[in-house]
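Dear support,

Our group has been running a series of protein-ligand predictions, and this particular one with NDP is the one our PI (initials K.S.) wants archived with full inputs and outputs. We had some confusion internally about which version of the output was final, so please treat the block below as the authoritative record. The input we submitted was:
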Amino acid sequence: MSKVLVIGAGGVGAVAAWKCAQAKDAFSEVMLASRNEEKCKKIAAKTPRPIRTAQVDADNVPQLVELIRSFGPDVVLNLALPYQDLHVMDACLETGVHYIDAANYEPPDVAHFEYSWQWAYQDRFREKGIMALLGCGFDPGVTNVYTAWAMKKHFDTIETLDIIDANAAENGQAFATNFNPEINIREVTAKGKYYKDGEFIETEPMEFSKTFDFPDGIGPKKMYLLWHEELESLAKFLQPKGLKEARFWMTFSDNYLKHLEVLQNVGMTRIDPVLYNGTEIIPLQFLKALLPDPASLGPLTKGKTCIGCLIKGKKDGKDRRYYIYNICRHEDCYRELGSQAVSYTTGVPAMIGAMLVGNGTWSGKGVFNMEQFDPEPFMKLLPEYGLPWTEEFLD
Ligand code: NDP
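Confirmed final output from the archive:
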């Protein structure tokens, strides 16, 4: 049994806190803390058993340290925004508590994300005798575990990896994002990048697209090549195992892309300050304030997400093509806990990570990515907590 402190009362934090509360045998106590404690209280009013709440500014390390010391968690699950990662890691170092997040650090003033900032904590976490588990959502997160599972169970070498993410759903909104709009728009308007033959190759945003025939009745959908953080750690992990190419693809509707293009053209996605009536505003942050809160999309979203890994490689000298994926229905997530599937598919793995770190099944000293641990216990827990997976051998 362990005590977990969840930070961030957004769409993902709400699911993770709910699932931690549900897992009575794993967590003796759960606390949800965020900038706005009212949001935590609203979430806590619906959890399957009472959880504690608190107010915290996760950019304020002394405040975090005080909260961690007063509650005494074994694990801190950081589900605020990527901007807070280093501050929460600093607080975990000072208090000697394990750290987990679902997205890698991003400086607020540059739309650029990579692991270097967090990997730089390696020696300090090791010396302190604690662990940081990075990217414990779905993608990154489950996609890393799927890849480690494929490597362990089905391949001797993996030559190509395509991570494929579809949200085949409607929410009736002209334009809405399924997770934090600021982070989402920064991600999709950034240059693309993929791994090929030992190096990362940059592309223009949305330069490459192709159509993939998704399973479970979703059918063919156009998807676009994006840079996604798990490619960085997975390329490192798979390079000695024969990796030649690794790419990440995501589907977008024509309607989403049309709105995004207009917003970009008029400067609404800019992240540099603009003077407006004597006050500096960041256009993208202002746009976020206008767009629907992802946590409010639960009752509106109908359809499915399908996220998985398409892998080519060799087993016993023979070529093999393999596809592993999860299907998650938005309506089912809403019925279960009032959430939409993107928050659900991120919050559930975050809780499972906290469970495995909390009970010592995944243990170590230092900073780790998901694929560095044995995938079996994680794969076993996924369907138990609502994320079943399917694997198919394609030839
Ligand atoms: P939301 O915007 O819905 O929630 C983020 C929450 O963080 C907000 O409720 C906000 O709290 C809180 N927060 C922001 N700044 C601070 C701060 N300084 N101190 C304390 N709390 C703060 O985002 P999501 O729930 O959609 O996403 C959460 C995280 O999960 C993000 O990092 C996102 O990138 C990641 N993610 C990862 C995915 C994956 O598959 N790996 C997929 C989807 C998301 P308040 O409301 O109290 O101000």
